[in-house]
TrEMBL record:
The lineage of its organism: Bacteria, Bacillati, Actinomycetota, Actinomycetes, Micromonosporales. This is Phosphopantetheine-binding protein. InterPro entries: ACP-like_sf, PP-bd_ACP. It comes from Dactylosporangium fulvum. Residues 4-84 form the Carrier domain. Gene3D superfamilies: ACP-like. It holds the Pfam family PP-binding.
């Protein structure tokens, strides 16, 4: 994964969480997105997924939305980066 891509996705994620009124003070790549970490509720996870989809041109299926709560920030960034790279490859 391109470090610039990961950094861009991470910054967008943190900015989005801030806009959604979540504290990002203690969030790092090992922080879970769901109740065990950042404490995003399912509606907030869905909003975050939509923001990421719109910004990076990737898609998450409805059944994947539930899996997001169990992902760490680092795993989520990796998943977005993989999909972004796959979409770029498919488009060329």
């Amino acid at each position: 994964m391109n470090d610039g891509t990961a950094a861009e996705i991470r910054q967008f994620l943190l900015d989005s969480l801030t806009e959604m009124n979540y504290s990002t003070e203690d969030i790092d790549d090992d922080t879970a997105l769901g109740p065990a970490g950042a404490d995003l509720e399912s509606l907030s996870l869905a909003e975050l997924a939509v923001r990421v989809e719109d910004r990076f041109g990737v898609r998450f299926d409805d059944d994947e939305a539930e899996k997001l709560a169990g992902m760490t920030v680092g795993e989520f960034i990796g998943a977005v980066a993989e999909r972004r790279a796959a979409a770029a490859t498919a488009g060329s």
